[in-house]
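This entry is retained here.
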Amino acid sequence: MRRGSAPPERASELPERLRHYAEPFALGRPLVEVARLQVDRTLRELQGSLSGVRGSLAVDRVRVSGQERAGEFTEVELEVLSGDAVGLARLASDLQHRLGLVPSASDKLTRALALAGIEPPAPGPAAPGLVPEMRLREAAARILTLHLSALAQAEPVARLGEDVEGVHRMRVATRRMRATFRLFADAFPPKKLERALSFMRKMGSELGRVRDLDVMLEQLPALSREVPQIVAADLEPLRELLVEFHGRERRRLVAWLSSAPRLARAQAFQRFATGVPLRLRGAAARPLREVAPVLLESATQRVFRRGAQVRKNSPPERLHALRIAAKRLRYTAEALAELYGEDLARCLRRMVKLQDVLGAYNDAHVAQAVLSRWIDTPQGRRLPRRTLVAVGSLIAAQDARADQARRAFRKAWRDFSREKVRLEFEALGRLQLGSP
């Protein structure tokens, strides 16, 4: 903010990069000024006559004013621009001893806020803190609060596009929130629950278009090695097309995330997901010790039931249904992990191989589907004929990968569906939560 200018009222009024950092947390809410910092910087370039090291010396005089307190402090920063840092290290030591400088243990903003009498918010808990007597709606709100925090922390990374993990982490948080709503569906009014799920589906769809392209662009070099080298050489026009699609979809995603309608829906969603009515009735008021075993048993039985329906020649939809059931069991277990501890963790480790095989099968089918979808566009149909032939080979290679995963599935399912594993899962359902 320029000196003398009025502070912004909304995150949307901030400079673009700063907006992308602030808006995921503020959404459409007004910004409230809690303190004002004024930094006067003196900057000098340094050149070592013997060592040749180049560096910069910055002296920052920081004035801070809060609602109740004000103050100022000075920071000295040395930065190596090129050459050996040993020469500047000696200078830093001399400045520290001659001027009585103290190494800073925190960043400039944290020091300024402390001087103004403002304590930065503490990091959120790493776990929801579930206990057996907690009511169902309260437990859901605590779990959803953690996922909302993960979503907000990932969103600046997704908006800036400097790391593909931003979109990935947002998508994972979105999926976990959808799973949490389904798991605790009885704790929410049906119509409001459907509106929340609709917003999550929209979020997943917007993120998915970018994520599919992120994954394909990252995997394309490895996938190209699965087809003959003479064919793989013709895939470069495909890569260029995917880069073009990726830029378009990223711009679309950022525009949607920043749009007023999305921000308003996100605020309403946040209030609904994390709010707990003063008076809870019916299923929403039931304690976890009664509900958790039922939820876990239901998710477990769904996996065994779906798995028993898969035969040697079953259609891909059967394996997809089993993969979804296994994923929901994992999400259920993650939500209830604090209640069951190591017993549940041990059971989940039994699922790792099965989920790996199902994931590989699904990845191959997804790769086939998205490649076919991208090729069946006006831009895709204009690709060189040799490239279209190469893409056909790539799709055929994914079909072979799916067949390989399907063969591996039979052994993974036999290992998972053994009587011993079934009994371990059944024992979890009989545990008396909260008992000494």
Q: What stands out?
A: The chain has a mean pLDDT of 90. Residues 35-115 form one domain.
